[in-house]
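Subject — a protein and its fold

Tokens — whole-number codes for backbone shape
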Amino acid sequence: MNCEDCFINCQKRHKKRLKLFLEMNWAIKALKVVEKIPAGKFLSYKAVAKKAGNEKAARAVANLMAKNTNPRIPCHRVIKNNNEVGGYKGSLNQAWQKAALLLKEGAIGVIPTDTIYGLCGSALKKEVVEKIYQLRKRDPRKPMIVLISSFDDLHRLGIKLESWQKKFLNKFWPGKVSVVLKCPSKKFEYLHRGTKTLALRLPKDKKLIRLLKISGPLVAPSANWEGKKPAVNLREAKKYFRDQVFYYGQGERRKKPSRLIDLTKKEIKILRN
């Protein structure tokens, strides 16, 4: 090998090392951006790439998140550029877990419930509930349905059951039956809106229950502005809420609303069949 060949090879090795160094330096910047995303918030792959100094590197951000093993990096807070959650830990099969973690932390998202798509958020966070009222343009006097994963969630919401109520619920829950129960706690006035009652449902859908066990109780009104047609898929939901929320789910949901029963008195009343 002559001197000219040696020089060319050295240049190639130098360029390769420089490229690797720049990529590593950019990746460190991107990870720092993700590390600073606060709980309850999210950024798109493109937004992270832009903050890290290269707006065109959205795909590189997605790959970086898929390979991340550092627990300090909240990669679940980085979603696709179309605001759909995308995969988690390198797998699309784990997207439900990503959505659940976002909801737990206070983010708002459109997700499939056991009936239709809902605009969902943590029922335990007042600011989240108020934000959903704003997004849906909903009458602030009207309480929203709350989805729970177990009877234990009733205690978390300050609801105590009488023996006859337990007997009824053990028969119909889990299932597509929503019930109105007394919720006298002033702490949850932001949920019951002064009515001192709440409509709740323990779904039978195993995938939804799995999500609820991580997210905690969720307010889950239909994904639409009040008085408008409920979205049956994510495309329709995006027309209402655009990039203000995240989106999780596939296909269409056109199921009938759940049966609604008043259990505040022993004289059981069917409010919606």
Observations:
- The longest strand covers residues 117-122.
- The chain has two domains: 1-81, 109-272.
- The mean pLDDT is 91.
- The CA atoms of residues 95 and 268 lie 40 Å apart.
